[in-house]
Amino acid sequence: MGSLKQQSFLKGQNIGRRNEEVFIHKIFSDVAANNPNHIAITYEDEFGKDRSLTYRQLEARTNQLSRVLLKHRGELEASDALVGVSMQPTDQLPTILLAILKAGLAYLPLDPGFPAPRVKHILAEAEPLLVVVEDGADMTIYEGATAITYEQLLEESIRESTSPLQLDEDSELALVLYTSGSTGVPKGVRLLHSAMMNRLRWQWRELPYSASEKTCVFKTALTFVDSIPEIWGPLLQGRNIVVVPKHITKDPERFIELLEKKKIERLVLVPSLLRTLLMYLDMQEDKQLLAKLKLWVCSGETLVVSLAEKFLARFPSGDHTLANFYGSTEVMGDVTYYLVNHPKQLQGLDKVPIGRPLDNTIVYLVDKEMRLVPQGEVGELVCAGRNLAAGYIRGRDPHRFLDNPHTIDPEYSRIYRTGDYARIIKGIVIYEGRTDAQIKVRGHRVDLSEVERAVGASPAVDKAVVLCYKPGELSQALISFVTAKNNTQISGLQIESFLQTVLPPYMIPQVIVIDTIPLLVNGKTDRQTLLKQYESLNYEEEFAVSCNYQNVPLHHLPAARALFPTVASVVGRSVRGMVSIDSNFYELGGNSLNSIYTVTRLRDQGYQIGITDFISAKNMREILGRMKVESDSDSDESADGEQYIFEELDASHKDDVMTMITDSFYSKADLEQWLMPDVTREDYTDLMDKLWEPLVEKRLSFVVKSTDGEALSVALNFDARDEPEIHITSKLTIVFDFLEYLEGPIRDGQLPKGKGQILHCFMMGTSSNLNAAENVILMRQMEEHVLRVARQKGFAGIFTTNTSPLTQQLGTDIYNYKVLLDYQVNKYVAPDGTRPFGKAPDAQRAVCSWKTV
Prior knowledge:
Layout: E1 9-11, H1 24-34, E2 39-44, E3 50-54, H2 55-75, E4 82-86, H3 92-102, E5 106-109, H4 116-126, E6 130-133, E7 147-149, H5 150-157, E8 173-179, E9 187-192, H6 193-206, E10 215-218, H7 227-235, E11 240-243, H8 246-249, H9 252-261, E12 266-269, H10 271-283, E13 295-298, H11 305-314, E14 321-326, E15 336-340, E16 356-357, E17 361-366, E18 379-385, E19 401-403, E20 414-425, E21 428-434, E22 438-441, E23 444-447, H12 448-456, E24 461-469, E25 477-484, H13 492-499, E26 510-513, H14 527-535, H15 557-571, H16 592-604, E27 607-608, H17 611-616, H18 620-626, E28 628-629, E29 644-648, H19 654-668, H20 681-698, E30 702-706, E31 711-719, H21 732-749, E32 758-766, H22 772-793, E33 797-802, H23 805-814, E34 818-824, E35 845-852
Parallel strand pairs: 2-11, 4-5, 4-6, 6-7, 10-11, 12-13, 13-14, 25-26, 32-33
Antiparallel strand pairs: 1-17, 2-3, 8-9, 14-15, 15-16, 17-18, 18-20, 19-20, 20-21, 22-23, 24-25, 27-28, 29-30, 30-31, 31-32, 33-35, 34-35
Helix pairs in contact: 1-2, 2-3, 2-5, 6-7, 10-11, 10-16, 15-16, 19-20, 22-23
């Protein structure tokens, strides 16, 4: 006789916690009382200084802030008492989150990088009481909501009591996280304090902090569910969290340096970042790097066996654990887990299991009628227990949260349908894919229908199909095939530029314009044919023809013949355009993850380049200049600079400077073009006449000349707190009023006080005789020399406003300026009520930036 197969369900440990505190802020207050002098939050600011708060200071500050927030709550009503938070990661971010919870409110993360339409949808649906933003934020994005800066809240709180609030009733809702929606519209997941605490208490029991683990990192975007254990896991255990800025996380070299410096012992990351870090570690001679980092938690993407094997090969002692977590926002991020620390655990497997359920949770595998399938068979994975969210904002998608037909236990009375397939083998869950069009991109859930809807909304697009090529693999690519309306001439890059205004960066596909969308006999899209068409776009043997070596200097040609094909092969089938000396790695389709792979491949061919040097290079020309063969010395690092002569501004330069400034701004200026014909060449002559003597007197400006004495460019600088008062009557007044409108609040409120602190780089001009490539080189030479001047004169940093896309890219991508304000030019209203730049496109920006010297 045959035996009945066991049904597919697994239950985590049942841990009774009926009388334990579930409110995060109350647990924090108890921890703060027991650890008043321990450091709670650390952040390295833009001046290179650590800002930190002790538990006593954080408790007092959040008590004050919560009282201010409660006053705002009293003035407004909402279905869910939410506070939007749109801030970059600094020490202020966890502080405001804790204050929100203490006020009996819930927080609603809004990434400052989200495009305006996405923000407007979330605000309209969630209806937060107010939105906390950064100083200098574009308030028009939050139109219709009450927006207030953290600094304003802090100023209001100074007079408030530092004792805890005593609320009549605490809100069970802790936060709302928006995810990609299957209907093409983002939806908000409602997470309760009790669900968060069930997840955290399981972590503390199963993966406790070691006695030496004093410091942890918070690096995950607040809009991503993994930020919850990164913030609250350490803070509710008396540990210190180090807030890591995005630009550090994206640079493996600097990120690993921080992990080593802070002696970090656990890290949460997506598998693609794990692959990148392992590649970087393999390049280093020091084999003890990150030896103290004992727990690596992977989530958000499929973890393949080959990557787990690479991890174990790097850390073979058995003291390092690779954890594979599975879940989604609707189940507090994680509902099952599998721990690996020995190769034997992977033998005979083609994928790393997602494991067993967490405490107080159950997973079931069911068929279409919600009946349990036998163990070993594939079924849809559904979850029950304390990790479940309380549904979606406005009750959307009710079919995802249902009554549980498999138990009468009230603890597990509701289930969530994940939309994932899985099977159970020997008590372990194995992931088998999706039931719908959702994929994971860098840990973020992306529904292809949402992307398809956005692509189809592009004005020139007739039909659009969005696909994922090899989901879960290193070569995964998000792609869209489109047809154009009425034979409109449109490129894929133009459509991608449109998508940047409506989708987050991780959701933007590579767009391919084709004549017709292939169909099956039933009239549906032939997706397999499209995937094969994408695959056939570029083959390995064709990479050579996509490399253009024109204009490569002879002495760089050997390196270029290694670099160009390597970039083409790494970027692979998503390569966009021909690889040439002026190509940008990221515009070709590269990213910070596969940049490591590129550097590794170059090293194998005998060429060395630092990952930071590679990531920050503007184009292949700069990469070639930074590449070294192993026998190279560093003696020629400044060779480019030796082609030019830098002279401090004096009377002999006046005619050349007048010409260069007038040519640069009258003919090419980004703002003045909207004032024509009311601005003349003579207006610049008048301006420079009035500025000339102060410029020469202050000795902060300079001219760049060629070795034969030709003036090529000029940089004009002042001490920001020692600028001359001049009177001009031309229409240029509009430009200077606009710049003061942007710069004044930043200069007076965010930058160092006193003279001799801020070098204001306010005008740069180049000779009209330069070609485009020479112009880029000269702009870079001036940027480097401005930095030298600032150092020599003892300034704390450089302040500048860039209206040119070129100088904006140089500042952020190469010189690591911190963007303090990114302003849409056509929004400016002059004192007389007019919009002088109203005809400028939405994409034209003015970017105020600061760089610490």
